[in-house]
Amino acid sequence: MKRVIVGISGASGAGLGLKFLESLPKEIEKYCVISEGAKRVLSSEENIQEIQKFVQIKSRVSKIFLFGDDELGACIASGSFVCEAMVVIPCSQNTLAKIACGMSDTLITRCASVMIKEQRKLLLATREIPFSQIALENMLKLSQIGVTIAPPVFGYYAGKSLDEIENMLIGKWCDNLGIPFEYGRWQGCN
Predict the structure, then answer these.
(1) Which of 35, 95, 103, 181 could be stapled to 69 by a disulfide with Cβ–Cβ 3.0 to 4.6 Å?
(2) C-beta of residue 96 within 8 angstroms of C-beta of residue 9
(3) From CA 29, how far away is CA 6, in angstroms rounded?
(4) 25 CB contacts (<8 Å, ≥6 apart)?
């Protein structure tokens, strides 16, 4: 895998999207889109006030290209931009509904629309509890056309710390995308 787009939308757990981005192997080009809602969540939940500065610091270790959600003319918004996979972690119900209905009014939803039309890998880590019937219908609709719906649901075998649980989630998402990642896997078959 050479390129991954990471969309971070405005749902609780936006820090998990950043952790996923940081966990990707260095050789993968990372294209990150952070919505305005996600910036508010990151400020509230992670105490990250200046997302641009945060990503620039991380980019020194692993090259990350950062885009605003309003940059609809960005290179990643085109089908001619070859990218093997896209994830939206977390995927808010608003973003899920827009993707399911084919709305492309933000860079995240435009990129998702391109991934669908180009039949490329798209994974949505939908966030909400409980899921409404509308959300379930949107997830079913997308799943039926090949989109992977992978909410951040942890396995109790993952460990006791939040870090271990988050690593298990990232590992499951990476497994789905074919990206190597070491984490505490189920050991029941020993």
Answers:
(1) 35
(2) no
(3) 11
(4) 179, 180
CA dihedral 128→131→137→142, nearest 10 degrees, is 30
Q: What pLDDT is stored for residue 58 in this prediction?
A: 60
Which has the closest alpha carbon to 152: 121, 181, 118, 123?
Answer: 123
CA distance between the termini of the chain: 31
User: Which phi and psi angles does 64 have, rounded to 5°?
Assistant: -130, 130
Given a contact cutoff of 8 angstroms between Cβ atoms, the answer to whether 152 and 127 are in contact is: yes
In sign, the C-alpha dihedral spanning 136, 138, 140, 142 is negative
Share of the chain above pLDDT 70, in %: 93
60, 2, 70: which is closest to 30 by C-alpha? 2
Cβ density class 64-81: b for 16+ within 10 Å, e for less: bbbbbbeeeebebbeeee
Res. 103: pLDDT tops 60: yes
Nearest to 22 by CA among 178, 181, 162: 181
CA atoms of 122 and 86, how far apart (whole Å): 5
Query: 3-27 pLDDT, tens per residue?
Result: 999 999 999 999 999 999 989 998 9
Q: Whole-angstrom Cα distance, residue 139 to residue 136?
A: 5
Q: Give, for 89, the enclosing helix (H) or strand (E).
A: strand 85-91
